[in-house]
Design goal:
374 residues; alpha+beta; four-stranded mixed β-sheet; 15 strands; 29% helix; flat
Length: 374
């Protein structure tokens, strides 16, 4: 996947939140403030201030491309993003508020797109990654899944060697099964054994289905009947903490409970942090006494939608934990000789494959209403 992009740099934490209503409240507070108070709430950086102009984000109707200080416009509809590993939140899609928005990623964001994110364990998401994650590799270089972000000629080479049609998603699934972090980045061995290729695809497709929670139009994977987590008691008041009882396999949010929660889901970590604890911390950050300005604006009561998200998140973590031993034990077998892809002109990929494609299917509004030149 030659084309890789660094992560989005928001520059100010208040533009993203677990609750879309909080983002609208923050926008209203910011646009209702004036002068020095607006500057304080905005949190200017060297890249973005209230007087900085910016283009509209591709594919999004920007409230305005005038300087924010002159004409903020109406609040843009928040969009779903991957803020942290397995944590889907919301973002205000206004490039005037984001230090580095990566418009090249927004141009290829659609229902066909998947993003591979280079963390210690590779993440795949259908949402735009917008957190402090690793480098982002889109599966497709153009909207509509028209051009794979793969070394040109790779699919044909693999199809010839393994004896069948190979799709871009097949390659992504192989990466999930066989790829590992290495000294040169995320390294992906290519097997020379068609049988190992098929075994890797089967494992990779299961991993992908779990990470995408089934994906568009697909039934999300579930734990076996007796292990499926349910909300046993609703969160009635704001929970004062998150707790786990391994004996009863119960996750408690104040008086609210979810069970059964397998110990493997509770212990599941990314970057040395338990995913469930990080998820809860993100939803209580606005209540921290240290929270200031717009970051302190959030829901006064625990939203029911957050409780409803928990069983799906627990299921994802438990299934990934179940698959971890199989993935750790998977080996690609004898490798495809390096001379093959090199002789076929597949590796190394050409320079143009490492750059974003030119997407010119519609005009994009630049700063101040001018057309952007791509």
């Amino acid at each position: 996947m030659p084309w890789a992009v660094g992560g989005l740099r928001l520059g100010r934490a208040w533009v993203a939140a677990p609750d879309p209503a909080a983002l609208r409240a923050r926008w209203a507070a910011l646009t209702g403030a004036e002068g020095a108070e607006r500057d304080r709430l905005f949190r200017p950086t060297r890249t973005r201030t209230p007087t900085t102009g910016a283009a509209a984000l591709p594919g999004r109707r920007s409230p305005s491309t005038a300087r924010f200080a002159d004409a903020p416009g109406p609040c843009p509809d928040p969009v779903r993003v991957l803020r942290d590993p397995f944590d889907e939140q919301w973002l205000l899609p206004d490039q005037r508020l984001i230090d580095v928005a990566r418009p090249e990623l927004w141009r290829v964001l659609d229902e066909h797109q998947l993003f591979a994110v280079e963390t210690p364990e590779l993440l795949v998401t259908a949402h735009l990654p917008a957190g402090r994650l690793g480098r982002i590799r889109p599966l497709h270089r153009r909207p509509g899944g028209a051009e794979p972000n793969l070394a040109p000629g790779l699919l044909a080479l693999l199809g010839e060697h393994y004896g069948g049609r190979v799709t871009p998603q097949d390659v992504l699934c192989w990466i999930l099964a066989a790829g590992r972090p290495g000294p040169r980045g995320y390294e992906v061995p290519l097997t020379g054994d068609p049988g190992r290729w098929r075994a890797g695809l089967e494992l990779g497709h299961r991993l992908l289905s779990v990470q995408l929670r089934g994906g568009p139009g697909a039934e999300p994977p579930r734990l076996p009947g007796g292990r499926r987590p349910y909300v046993r008691s609703a969160v009635q008041a704001w929970p004062d903490g998150l707790a786990y009882d391994p004996e009863t396999e119960t996750l408690s949010l104040g008086a609210g409970t979810v069970s059964p929660v397998p110990p493997s889901a509770w212990e599941y970590e990314q970057g040395g942090t338990r995913v469930l604890e990080a998820w809860f911390a993100a939803r209580t950050a606005h209540r921290d006494p240290q929270a200031d300005g717009l970051e302190a604006l959030g829901p006064a009561e625990w939203p029911q939608a957050w409780t409803s998200e928990l069983p799906a998140l627990v299921t994802t973590l438990a299934l990934l934990a179940d698959l971890a031993p199989e993935r750790a034990a998977f080996t690609p077998g004898p490798l495809l000789p390096a001379a093959g892809p090199a002789a076929a002109g597949v590796l190394p990929p050409p320079r143009w494959a490492r750059r974003p494609a030119s997407v010119l299917d519609h005009h994009e509004e630049g700063p101040g209403g001018q057309f952007a030149l791509l």
